[in-house]
Amino acid sequence: MVVPTFSQLKRFIGKLLTNNDWDFNFRKIVEWLTDGTADLNVNSVIATTSMVAPLMGDSSTVFTGDGSGISNLSVTGAGVRTKTLANDDFDSWKLGTVFANPASGVETADRWEVDKANGSGTAPSVDVNRVTTIPDSKSTFSMELDVTAAGAIGASMFWRSKQILLNGDWEKFKGESISVAFQAQTPASAFFSIVIDDGVTVQETAFSGTTSFAQYKVENVLLSGVATKLEISIGLANATNIPTTGSYFVTQFQVNSGDVIDAFEPASVALVDANLHVGSDKPLANENKDGLYARSIDQVLRLDEQEIDLATAALIVSEQWSDIVHGRRYLAQLDDMAVEIRSRLKAKKLAADYRAIDVINRYLFDELGFKSVKEATDPNDLFLHSVLDKKKGYCLSLSILYLSLTELICVPF
User: Fold this and answer.
1) Which CATH fold would you assign to the domain 98-257?
2) Which residue among 55, 98, 102, 321 is buried most deeply as judged by most CB within 10 Å?
């Protein structure tokens, strides 16, 4: 069983979960605590309003909200399973629901981003929207890919909507077979494809669509034993094919380990407004910032200033610098450091203001041993992830670390 650290769970402390945003909150806890077959265990959960959660096919009533804590809650059922792809039924759209011909790299539905290139041709113009055109009651929304201009065939031309799986979600598939499927409705006989890129080989399987929903799948795809990533995409164009103008609707995306696609089971948590409390500590100051959900610098720059999360932005830059950096791991480390600083302030009965500076300095530089380098001869010293790994950095990167921590404990700067 994959058990989350407190730093991972505490992002949900006191978070108001509604029918509109449970996908980014409660479902994530389910994913962390479930390996596909094991029980779901949640400790010290308080539901201030009654909620019923049939977890991924299990019809059991999971929470009843009487305001008291529920300890060592367990739910067992064959229906409980891990979602390899995040937002596989396109329920969550934190950054908007309408995107007019978004540029390459723009995230649309949460965790799904546009990937396109003209090459020697012209990539199609495609609007991306959240719509309620769906195949059945297992879904609430689909992703509409509205092709307004078909583009022109040419070498290295393509258009895709892709999800880059996080390291912990795909590395178990190295050297193994996977199967991928989704439901789609397209213009008559329209070209589209499933694209699987493991960093060693790009495998594309083409389909001819129909005007009613059908499942399209590719099974038993062997990934390289030295794979460096896993990207799953729906493709609308490539060097030899362009799409038909009109709307393509996609939902119920799934990736299975092995050579067979199972029936799609939604993570159908019917969640009434409720507050989940994990542990007793209060949330950090960035708890509800939109910047926590940013996945690119472009998304950061579109945020209001007060919604930007400094550490998240800095670690996005780190991820662009190095393909092997997973920024979310460092966010958890920063959270743990901030909680430790805050507990020391509490023990000394000090407010999170200028009086916190001495406590932060002693913790960072005396106890943890962070130090500065006089010259940035190693470019890695300029990045936040490297400072956290090596406990040394240039004045700029050390300042980003310092400001990130003060932001988390709400020290004004």
Assistant:
1) Jelly Rolls (2.60.120)
2) 55
Give the single-character DSSP code of 100: S
Domains of the chain: which residue ranges?
A: 1-83+267-283, 98-257, 285-413
pLDDT in tens, the chain (413 residues): 333 444 444 444 444 333 333 334 444 444 444 333 323 333 333 333 333 333 333 333 333 333 333 333 333 332 333 457 778 889 888 788 999 999 999 999 988 999 999 999 999 999 999 999 999 888 889 999 999 999 999 999 999 999 988 655 677 788 989 999 999 999 999 999 999 999 999 999 999 999 999 999 999 999 999 998 899 999 999 999 999 999 999 999 988 887 777 777 554 332 222 333 333 346 678 877 888 878 788 889 989 998 999 999 999 998 888 766 777 678 878 988 998 898 899 889 888 888 899 999 999 999 999 999 988 788 888 999 999 999 999 999 999 999 999 999 988 76
Task: For the full predicted model, state whether its pTM sits above 0.85.
Answer: no
The number of beta carbons lying within 10 Å of the beta carbon of residue 176 is 14
Count Cβ atoms below 10 Å from residue 182 Cβ, excluding itself.
Answer: 25
CA distance 409 to 413: 11
Print burial letters for 76-109: b (CB count within 10 Å at least 16), e (below 16): eeebbbbbbbbbbbbbbbbbeeebebbeeebbbb
Q: Which residue has the tokens 């004045």?
A: 395
Q: In what order do the strands lie in the sheet with 125-131?
A: 98-99, 125-131, 142-149, 246-257, 177-185, 214-222
What 8-state DSSP symbol labels residue 110? T
Give, as one character, the DSSP assignment of residue 367.
Answer: I
| Burial zone of 366 (CB within 10 Å; 0-12 exposed, 13-18 middle, 19+ buried) | exposed
State the angle between helix axes of 327-347 and 395-408 in degrees (0 to 180), rounded to the nearest 10.
60
